[in-house]
Write a structure and sequence with these properties.
The complex is a heterodimer of chains A (504) and B (95). With 504 residues, chain A is of the alpha/beta class. Chain A has two domains: 305 residues, Alpha-Beta Complex (Amidase signature (AS) enzymes), CATH 3.90.1300.10; 72 residues, no CATH class. Helix content of chain A is 37%, strand content 12%. In chain A, the strands form two sheets. In chain A, strands 4-6-5-10-11-9-7-8 form an eight-stranded mixed β-sheet, with helices on both faces. In chain A, a hairpin with a 5-residue loop joins strand 10 and strand 11. In chain A, helix 10 crosses helix 12. Chain A is globular. Chain B has 95 residues and is mainly α. Helix content of chain B is 31%, strand content 4%. Chain B has three helices and two strands; from the N terminus they run H-H-H-E-E. Chain B has a two-stranded antiparallel sheet with strand order 1-2. In chain B, strand 1 and strand 2 form a beta hairpin. Chain B is flat. The two termini of chain B are 42 Å apart. The chains are: A alpha/beta (504), B mainly alpha (95). The interface between A and B is large, with 72 and 52 residues.
């Protein structure tokens, strides 16, 4: 039998429908692949018993002709989603052995439609990071080989300190690496400033951050509530659309989730894009941008033009202020959201001489450096005397950023094309001595989309000279993810997929 | 704007994070790097601009004012580091 893990979600679904293999066989193939890839550190918890039980139930539903849209499809779940009875940590020591007594809305919808859970995926602690290196479980290895490395050299590094191997991006680094390494057919992820799209770009996978409000945030560990959105990472545009159709939808338990009908996003894949107007924002041509990124961007525009789209130059004048404004708004919200980790109700507890000392010791030992720094920045910008200068000003700038997009869409633009990241994946530990702002610059092209609440799709556009994947980003109108899937499938058809050979 | 060591200690205290004295200078440098980065926001003219309160324009949905949840104390304290009779236990707060 062919290696079932190499299939796309769509191919696997056809195989299951055609009875070429069973959901149990599909789950077993993935569980074996996960076991053989433990050194990549993509999964922080494997749930084989659950996977096999769910697969068995899927097989009997398929047998009866009652299969849901994802019946029998094995997926990985970012460890930010609460899963009932299954440890959920946000990759932080402070959650310790937290076992939720409830299921997040997004995952419950995936199980409703027949998906099978393989396990929980690594991520940057509380989704704060762009390389998956802030995880309490340690870094994840990108299955894409570094430039000029062979399998032997990579295996040696994997057995050692992992230096030189590539990061899978972050914060959804476990999700992107697991999809790229064929350790699941798709994964859930979350995106606050680029955490779905940047990892997708670094691993040659496809990821979409839906419009704010499209997916319920209920049961997802909160980072910055006005920016957080769940979305899928998968091998193809169609696979992403299939997962998204299941994940989206109104939820009375999240007052910011929008009560709009969920279209069948798969129907948009392959739809003609002739006559669509695509904006190229001049402000994204940043200083020092590598020529390869510039060339990729142009190639992406050419592909859309070849499919009949019209390409126009547009201006988003406040682009450069999105990242600094984000680094006020996001830490401010995080400092408030993370106040709940107090050593009293759940998770880690470090004894103290009184209750305040208990809080302070618990939080000092439970949070990693990046998280502590962001909580402190957030506390500072919200503190008396600084609120107006920092937080209020940032929220006003956020209004201006959103208005930039509104003006462009009002002029008749259907979607915007940009590079997904300013560079290809970098090496593990390479940024260790850089100041925090250098790492933050990874999100320069993605963060505007969160600030404006818009949908953004990242997909492979090509490779750099060394063969590393480079991603393109399509930004849509609010709640028009369908146009992104249509445009994305046009690019995918011409650019092709990027797959990592198995070397680990 | 930049912060001095005393301010870093004060923010740590407000954040309820114990910060050992030897970690203060590094944290101070990192916070100042970020504050330096966000300083450019001062260039933007925000005269008459409303601060964003909701990124998606929508009216908050109302629900019926009825009890929909509760009576699950065991579930609520299931993950508590220390509990007794459905109460969370903490060090003595009131003498």
């Amino acid at each position: 039998m062919t290696d079932l893990t190499q299939l796309t979600l769509t191919e696997a679904r056809e195989g299951l429908a055609g009875k070429q293999f069973t959901a149990v066989e599909l789950a077993e193939a993935h569980l074996a692949a996960i076991e053989a890839a433990r050194a990549l550190n993509a999964y922080v918890l494997e749930t084989p018993e659950q996977a096999l039980a769910m697969a068995k139930a899927a097989d009997s539903r398929l047998q009866r002709g009652e299969g849901g849209r994802l019946e029998g499809i094995p997926i990985g779940v970012k460890d930010l989603f609460a899963t009932e009875g299954v440890r959920t940590t946000a990759s932080s020591r402070i959650l310790g052995n937290f076992v939720p007594t409830y299921e997040s809305t997004v995952t419950s919808q995936l199980w409703r439609d027949g998906a099978v859970m393989l396990g929980k995926l690594n991520n940057d602690e509380f989704a704060m990071g762009s390389s998956n290196e802030t995880s309490a479980f340690g870094p994840v290895v990108n299955p894409i080989l570094p430039a000029n490395w062979n399998a032997e050299k990579a295996r040696a590094a994997l057995a050692g300190d992992k230096k030189g191997l590539l990061v899978p991006g972050g914060s959804s680094g476990g999700s992107s690496a697991a999809v790229a390494a064929h350790l699941c057919l798709g994964a859930t992820a979350t995106d606050t400033g680029g955490s779905i799209r940047q990892p997708a770009a670094f691993t040659g996978t496809v990821g979409i951050k839906p419009t704010y409000g499209r997916c319920s945030r209920w049961g997802i560990v909160a980072f910055a509530s006005s920016l957080d959105q769940a979305g899928p990472i998968a091998k193809t545009v169609r696979d992403c659309a299939a997962l998204m159709t299941s994940m989206a939808g109104h939820d009375p338990k999240d007052s910011t989730s929008v009560d709009l009908p969920v279209p069948d996003f798969e129907a948009a894949v392959g739809r003609s894009v002739a006559g669509k107007t695509i904006g190229i924002p001049r402000e994204y041509r940043v200083e020092g941008m590598p020529a390869e990124i510039e060339a990729l961007w142009k190639k992406g525009a050419d592909m859309l033009r070849a499919a009949g789209a019209r390409i126009v130059d547009v201006s988003l004048p406040h682009t450069k202020y999105a990242l600094p404004a984000y680094y006020i708004v996001a830490p401010a919200e995080a400092s408030s959201n993370l106040a709940r980790y107090d050593g009293v109700r759940y998770g880690l507890r470090v004894p103290g001489k009184d209750i305040t000392d208990l809080y302070e010791q618990t939080r000092a030992q439970g949070f990693g450096r990046e998280v502590k720094r962001r909580i402190m920045i957030g506390t500072y910008v919200l503190s008396a005397g600084y609120y107006d200068a920092y937080y209020l000003r940032a929220q006003k700038i956020r209004t201006l950023i959103k208005k930039d997009f509104e003006d462009v869409y009002a002029s008749g633009v259907d979607a915007i094309l940009t590079p997904a990241t300013p560079s290809a994946a970098f090496g593990i530990a390479e940024m260790a001595d850089a100041d925090p702002v250098q790492m933050y610059l990874n999100d320069i092209f993605t963060v505007t989309v969160n600030m404006a609440g818009l949908p953004g799709l990242a997909l492979p556009g090509g490779t750099d000279a060394a063969g590393l994947p480079l991603g393109l980003q399509l930004i849509g109108r609010p709640f028009d993810e369908e146009t992104l899937f249509s445009l994305g499938s046009v690019i995918e058809e011409q650019a092709g997929r990027i797959t990592a050979p198995r070397w680990w | 704007m930049s912060v001095d060591a005393a301010t870093v200690r004060r923010i740590a205290r407000l954040s309820r994070i114990a910060l050992p004295e030897q970690d203060v200078p590094v944290m101070q440098d990192e916070i100042n790097a970020i504050l330096g980065f966000v300083e450019q926001l001062g260039e933007v003219n925000v005269e008459g601009v409303e601060p964003m309160t909701s990124v998606t324009p929508m009216a908050l949905k109302m629900r019926d004012d009825v009890v929909t949840d509760g009576e699950k104390a065991s579930k609520v304290i299931a993950n508590a580091p220390q509990s007794e009779d459905h109460y969370f236990l903490v060090p003595k707060v009131v003498e």
